[in-house]
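Supplementary material to the annual report.
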Amino acid sequence: MLDARDITVSFGRTTVLRDVSLQVRPGELVALCGPNGAGKSTLLAAMAGDFPPARGQIFIDGAVISTLAPAELARRRAVLEQSPSLSAGFSVGELLSLSIPRTVPPDRAAALIAQKLHAVGLADRIHDTCQILSGGQRHRAHLARVLVQLAAADTPGTGYLMLDEPTSSLDIAHQITTMRIARRAAREGAGVLVVLHDLNLAAAFADRVALMHAGRMVAEGAGAEVFTAGRLSAIYETEIAVEHADSRTPRILPVYSPDAHAGPDL
Amino acid sequence: MRFLTALLLSAVLLASGDARAAGPQRIVSAGGDITEIIYQLGAGDRVIGLDSTSNFPADASEKAQIGYIRNLAAEGILSLQPDLLIAAHDAGPPPAVEQLRAAGLRVEIAPKGDSVAGVQEKIRFVGTVLELPEQAEALALKLEEDMKASLEIAEANTERPRVIFVLNTADGAPLVGGTETSADAIIALAGGVNAAAGFEGYKPMSQEAIITAAPDVLLMMSQTVDRLGSIDVMLSRPEFQLTPAGRNRRHVAMEGILLFSFGPRLPQAVRELATALQQKDG
Amino acid sequence: MAVTTTLQGRAAGILGRRPLFGALVALLVLMAFAEVALGPVRLGPSDLLKVLIGEGERGPTAILLQIRLPRMVLGLAVGIGLALSGCALQGVLRNPLADPGLIGVTAGAAVGAVGVIVLGNFFVGDLPAVVRPYALPLGAFIGSTLVTGFVFSFSSRGGGTNIAMLILAGVAVNAIAGALIGAMVFISNDQQLRDLTFWSMGSIASGNWMTVTVTSVVAVASGLFLARMGRILDLFQLGERAAFHAGVDIEREKRRIALLTALSVGAVTAAAGPIGFIGLVAPHMARLIVGPAHRHVLPAAALIGGALILGADLMVRLAIPPTEPPIGLATSMIGGPFFLWLLMRRMRKAGGNA
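Predicted assembly:
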């Protein structure tokens, strides 16, 4: 389990996270939602081991994250950043092979690469340089890289996958594909944490939803329980309706009122 | 007395006129003064390579060029197949000299000499190495004689004018010769006083310092003057206008190599400069 | 949008990389041989053989063993050290225009060397006689170490090594070094001025086996460590944060690269003076031939760097004998136009991607 317990994170004098707790268990997909500035990416970064919290502790399968060396951490969790970048002219295949340790035999490595490229729908682009791919394709290539990193790790268990807003720059079809891939990774045993802006994607794909506001965890649980009209309208400071077509998957419907005057946050 | 010496010198030179095959025959020379001495001893035809500071006499430009004396290329020199490298005291870099010796080349480094006695020592040194001792002795004596005459001219000038030597101007302040420079030495020999005696070496001098120094005469190298166009380019600068040199337009331009060679032509340089300093108007 | 296929794309795809590396090794060996066999003094094969078996005459033996061979060895060390350091810096800074001079190594070495040349009279006499002939390279090396150490500690104050601060500190330090050198130039006499001018143009004509050996050992040893950092440098291309996520201890590796670069560039600059462009140009040429993966680029750059330096040295030795222009001129003549071409290529690529 990836377990953040009562963590507080400050940058300088600003407290970004206040007594936040969150658990991600193997086999479940947890969506982390909330307004801009709520602290979602910071929480994901802290749980990825980027920096130690000012207070509280983060455990990964029982070990305190800050005690693990980067190489050891990389065997247990993989992170896809919000805007992955690549400063060299690698091909898609070369990009993925970066995530495979030298100890893995070449045929297994090739098989892994092919498998994950197939999963993201880029199997035929393996020899193309990443620079000629479209933005969305590049993003998918990085997603495949991150999947390869977890699959190639030789630790017991299937690790943790952490995706920071993986759908923000994708079209609807690719958003759905990406979330399906994340969900399949969870079904195959990984613990998956996804930061999402799109509440409907969260409601549709996540096993559990964690909702944050102003550095605190406001609500946690099934999508239907967490996403209520009153709560969402209060947190996002705009009118949001919620439809419960079936008991499991609520539909979040922001009220647009295009000709109303701009809200208080302007 | 001078006539007798000249006669003796001519006799000796005539006697050794037919080139005897003794002494080094393929000479590489580094250092303007050393090269001049070699030519004055009559061995100029034995020189096969020169450094970039050896510009006199004129046929020196036809010899192979070995570069700057302090940055010699060992293998380059060896490719000329010399049997002697004779160089002024500051030849370098030291590893190159070592490499030349290790390769079996005879390397002779002349002593340093900024005075009349020093130049004579250089002459005798070259003479010994080239196996022309009589010619060297004669040349050294002639130097002494000529020097006496030139110094007489210099001393005849009771004015003892204040002289400022400007090396060049790099768009900013003029670069002036202070103490411990060849300019300082030659000005003193020629009967003048270095107006810029407050510092060592060649340094940029501020306008106020030049005015305070109040030089009577501006001395420059003729090649610098040519480059500027005319000496008025310097004299008409505001700081010089406020000096006696500028007001009276007293200036001397002399060939750089002659002025600073500190070789066999030293008496000539002193004589020319002393004579020029005695002229009261520009 | 045109797809620029590199030589690597076509050639390596067809042939695999081994023949390419074989060709590079062969090129380097050829250059090394040429550096020893050719020169202003014509030495025939019989002369070379005689010296090899120890029965050479005095002249050819000195030329081969004391003039050309140390040049060749030092040239290799310089080329390898500069190329590997340049490659590692470009990798860790994720900037293809990075050059070892950025972190202040060259400026520090220059301050040290000029200091010895201009101020040497004051203290060289106090040094033990054994050390005195090495005062210049020692001073240069101490200078480069101090300056690089300062730049790195300055940019590491906030915990990790801040790359942006590193570059800015390097700029500031270069400026300060320039001022110090200017001050020393001001008080220098004619001879010292000439000496430091020639030093600053670079030369591998050291002729001192002790200097050559020490420099080569330091440069090659650091180079070997750098050459093994291929995968880590590749991971740095994802950005520091992503590299950390992928398992790289980014602070430790940055410090390691800094140390190894400072050592190897400091050593070769101390022995040969500042020689530009090799650290910039060799990695790029390598990338063009063997592709972007650092585990290929590093060794290829080392081979190319060595060949470039030896080629440049051949040029300056054979161009206008018996004089010898400084090697920095030849490397700038190769590097300058190549740099322009690089920039044009980048601009074209950026325009195409718009």
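Chain B is about 45% helix and 15% strand.
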